[in-house]
């Protein structure tokens, strides 16, 4: 704040202006409105622009993370579906290669079981 000194005329109109005794000195506080300079305005605008740019960058990163998370969930559900299909197919293979089924199919085709002609084959699973 700036302080100014000025002289005030007395309330009486009959006072002589030539005499300095009739004037009184008073101090009065005045407020001055300080304007923003161009450099400060530029700094503020650049700061505001940087904040907006950072906010946009953070939001784009969050959006990308959300998209990747939804893609991960989708892939995990596809993996679960495929694993269940594989399990069902393994169960079907086990059922199809059972001895009873092969014996039944052989009888349907007219083949007879001859013990001298049967060979035992060991099964080596590659699992």
From TrEMBL:
This is Cell division protein FtsL. The chain crosses the membrane at residues 41-59. The keyword Cell cycle applies. It is found in: Cell membrane. Belongs to the FtsL family. The keyword Cell cycle applies. InterPro entries: Cell_div_FtsL (IPR011922), FtsL/DivIC (IPR007060). GO terms for biological process: cell division. Residues 65-92 form a coiled coil.
């Amino acid at each position: 704040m700036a302080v100014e000194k000025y002289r005030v005329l007395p309330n009486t109109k009959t006072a002589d202006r030539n005499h300095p005794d009739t004037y009184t000195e008073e101090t009065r506080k005045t407020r001055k409105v300080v304007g923003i300079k161009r450099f400060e305005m530029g700094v503020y605008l650049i700061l505001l622009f940087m904040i907006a740019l950072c906010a946009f960058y953070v939001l784009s990163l969050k959006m990308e993370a959300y998209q990747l998370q939804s893609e991960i969930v989708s892939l995990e559900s596809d993996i679960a579906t495929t694993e269940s299909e594989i399990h069902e197919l393994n169960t079907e293979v086990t059922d199809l290669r059972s001895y009873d089924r092969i014996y039944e199919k052989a009888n349907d085709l007219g083949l007879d079981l001859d013990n001298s002609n049967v060979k035992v084959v060991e099964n080596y699973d590659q699992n």
